[in-house]
TrEMBL record:
It holds the Pfam family Thioredoxin_7. PANTHER family: SUPPRESSION OF COPPER SENSITIVITY PROTEIN, THIOL:DISULFIDE INTERCHANGE PROTEIN DSBD. This is Thiol:disulfide interchange protein. Residues 26-141 form the Thiol:disulfide interchange protein DsbD N-terminal domain. GO terms for molecular function: protein-disulfide reductase activity. GO terms for biological process: cell redox homeostasis. The chain crosses the membrane at residues 279-304, 325-345, 365-383, 404-428, 434-458, 478-495, 501-520, 532-550. The keyword Disulfide bond does not apply. CDD domains: DsbDgamma. Keywords: Membrane, Signal, Transmembrane, Transmembrane helix. It comes from Sphingopyxis witflariensis. Residues 1-17 form the signal peptide. InterPro entries: DsbD_gamma, DsbDN, Thioredoxin-like_sf.
Amino acid sequence: MLAMLALVLIALSPATAAPTHIQPKLVAESAAPAPGGATTLALTMTPEKPWHGYWANGGDAGFGMAVEWNLPEGVTVGAFHYPVPDALILFGMMNHVYEHPYALLADVRIDKSVAPGTDLTLSGVANWLACTDKVCVPEKAVISVALKAGDGVISAASRTQFDGWRALLPQPLDRAGTWERKGETLRFAIPLPAATTLDAPHLFLETREVADYAAPQAFSRNGDQIIIETKAKGDASGAVEALLKLGDGRGLTVRFEAGAVPAAGEAIATRVSGIDMGLFWTALGGAILGGLILNLMPCVFPILSLKALSLTRSGGDAGDAKVEALAYTTGAVVTALLLGGALLMLRAVGEQVGWAFQLQHPVSVLVLLILAIAITLNLLGTYELPTFGKGQALTAKSGAAGGFWTGALAAFVATPCSGPLLGAALGATLVLPAWAALPIFGGLGLGLALPFLAIGFIPVLRNRLPKPGPWMAKFRKWMAVPMGLTALALGWLLWRQVGAGAGLVYPLIAVSMAVVLLWHFGAIQRGDRRKWFLGVVALLLTGSLIAATAELAKTDHKVAASGSAFSPEALAKARATGKPVFVYFTADWCLSCKANEAGAINREATQTAFDKAGVITLVGDWTNGDPAITRTLSALGRNSVPLYLWYAPGAAQPEILPQILTPGMLTGKVDTK
């Protein structure tokens, strides 16, 4: 009734502009959309406090956005896509609202007949309802955005902004649910894996006259089905469109077909803590064990070995060993927490990022490359650090400092790979609140530090370390080999990210200056008195780093995939053929990914079997980051790579394969007879 009254008021209201309580602004992702192509519009809505706007179906007393467009010839605008709303009950009526700034997205298509350079300015009259808990006001405003037919270029800033808005849209569930009415009870079944966590869920019905919006909704789980029961209203039939809010701004759009709904199962209670404790402890255990496995990675092993070498050099003193072990553990845990906190903050502001996000930016890779080279040169004896210097009696404080920074370095360089158990554990952080997700990241750092922690606190293990001797110098030089290989891998990754053109010039200069600086530092330690040369090189290094950072910040290269590139559209097209589909998500900085590709995916036996069975392979390359891939990973409960999916013909959901593949595991998926 209130909605109808508001519509009447809009119709009778004067056309003159008036101040609004929700400020609209129309923005285009590309100001020069290409003829025959498309771009995305965002209608941003910024409510004043305490006002709120409405979802497409506003509920009992509201309505969504309506725009009367004035479009140039050859331009069409699609329907708006809404972010996940909140449920608000006022005076016994349910409202589907936004009490914060939000953006509605719509696709704009340009006909191929439009001539380049044509003015395509879009305008229209937008009508919406703005309310507080006491009053509702129908509002309207003229909205417009200047467009001109062009090349379709999207700036990096615009892409980042729109990706942030897209991240807040609900994800479509790729299979339909069922619904039925039994008397006054309305029942829904949503196919969701048992591992999916619901935190304060709510079902928003877009189809009207189906349910009593304000009635309680009972959620339960029956196997891989979420059962929802509420009070029916009206006499709807056929398909029903809805949005399932999972919690924390996440949601799924679901289409329900009329059909049988399974019996209600185990009730899903609204948890006071807001988390699934079973999921939390499982993820924490997986993170600790996964971090322990990371010690076998080539870039982490030499660091762990050097700390063991440090203990050997100290003669096995129990007090020093414990202090250094605790410092190392603290450094690893703190670094993992900082990286996890940065990831959660970036996601909170709409960035589409996942674990090891820092390696998706060439500037970070350059810094790590110089660091890896510095460690390699130190291991080779080119120069000495105070913590490795011969004849330097370290105090307990300096030993702790060395342990802390070594643990921090180990955690930082270990993040690019997601091994067994770790992928699922980190994926759990997507559905846990931030205060519960942070301990998962801390558990990764603890697992990484466990071997050294054990050496520091268990005398039997410490006593098994070899006695100090000349072998230590040779062992230290041998440890330069895996660290040098890590540096080469980072150099290859940087080349893959920026290409072989001018973008590599300043990074190469910076790396060269760093090598010269460290070499001359070592020469001074060996008696060379030309310390002025050190200052000159340091200035040159600083200048080249600044220039390299500025150059790499402009880089927007995409790494070419080795197979058919993954996209949601490509996946839908591949599945529509009725053939098996194998999707794998990889990155050039992921050691596990490359090992699986060389040892299983790209093996001749695997490719022959796939060709014979007509398997369609799609590759999601996450090296430089890709919002579409990040959203896909998130929808599957992951935020790291590798991830391997197998879609059998006709299957509604993919089978998630293990993170360590074998040729037999893949060939076994197809009938090669």
